[in-house]
Amino acid sequence: MNELIPMEPSESKKKKAEIEPRDLLIHEREYWESGFERIAGIDEVGRGCLFGDVVAAAVILPRDLILEGVNDSKKLTEKKREALYDVIMDKAVSVGVGFADAETIDRLNIKQATRLAMKRAVEALDGVPDYLLVDAEKVDVNVPQISIIKGDANSQSIAAASIIAKVTRDRLCKEEWETLYPEYGLSIHKGYATKFHREQIMALGATPMHRRSFLGNLLGEQHTLF
């Protein structure tokens, strides 16, 4: 008797699975149907940067609204993020943005500073939300909430918050922060630890907006020029 060999999924089935749209409202619907109307998605950006604030956003979208193209901000082009930023700001019930600067990050640590930025984003909303969908974190507010792993890829509200936070921080890097410290290339690398950024820190020293707790041995004997 011939042994049955498990068959690999056909290429057509694989392709179908890849292009089949993910339901990004599955979490929202669960809580809408439980009586929670104002559901806010929460996400942050800049957690791994050497420079500048960690930025968080909270977004409440209208019930059952589907925003075409909304996804994890890291998977979108800059042009697409900018376009979706305008759509989200236009369609959202409310948007809040919160910040925690480098001094706060060094004083508290990045995890607690991120939570603080998220709390500030929630507090910046117009009114108190009924429920929070948070990307892999907990927010220190008296609002029911759930932490969702890879939330920006599984919740439209969190994905929208991811886009708002990313565009907000990128604009700071390209405009205000680039103007303050033009030698560091912030408009290009957005404060992340690229080779050029690390070389400039070694050559010029750290600015007051660099996260000392992230620099480790990079500074060594380098002195601060600002």
TrEMBL record:
<feature type="binding site">
    <location>
        <position position="44"/>
    </location>
    <ligand>
        <name>a divalent metal cation</name>
    </ligand>
</feature>
<feature type="binding site">
    <location>
        <position position="43"/>
    </location>
    <ligand>
        <name>a divalent metal cation</name>
    </ligand>
</feature>
<keyword id="KW-0479">Metal-binding</keyword>
<dbReference type="InterPro" id="IPR001352">
    <property type="entry name" value="RNase_HII/HIII"/>
</dbReference>
<keyword id="KW-0378">Hydrolase</keyword>
<feature type="binding site">
    <location>
        <position position="135"/>
    </location>
    <ligand>
        <name>a divalent metal cation</name>
    </ligand>
</feature>
<dbReference type="InterPro" id="IPR024567">
    <property type="entry name" value="RNase_HII/HIII_dom"/>
</dbReference>
<protein>
    <recommendedName>
        <fullName>Ribonuclease HII</fullName>
        <ecNumber>3.1.26.4</ecNumber>
    </recommendedName>
</protein>
<keyword id="KW-0540">Nuclease</keyword>
<feature type="domain" description="RNase H type-2">
    <location>
        <begin position="37"/>
        <end position="226"/>
    </location>
</feature>
<dbReference type="GO" id="GO:0004523">
    <property type="term" value="F:RNA-DNA hybrid ribonuclease activity"/>
</dbReference>
<dbReference type="InterPro" id="IPR036397">
    <property type="entry name" value="RNaseH_sf"/>
</dbReference>
<comment type="similarity">
    <text>Belongs to the RNase HII family.</text>
</comment>
<comment type="function">
    <text>Endonuclease that specifically degrades the RNA of RNA-DNA hybrids.</text>
</comment>
<dbReference type="InterPro" id="IPR022898">
    <property type="entry name" value="RNase_HII"/>
</dbReference>
<keyword id="KW-0255">Endonuclease</keyword>
<dbReference type="InterPro" id="IPR012337">
    <property type="entry name" value="RNaseH-like_sf"/>
</dbReference>
<keyword id="KW-0464">Manganese</keyword>
<dbReference type="Pfam" id="PF01351">
    <property type="entry name" value="RNase_HII"/>
</dbReference>
<keyword id="KW-0963">Cytoplasm</keyword>
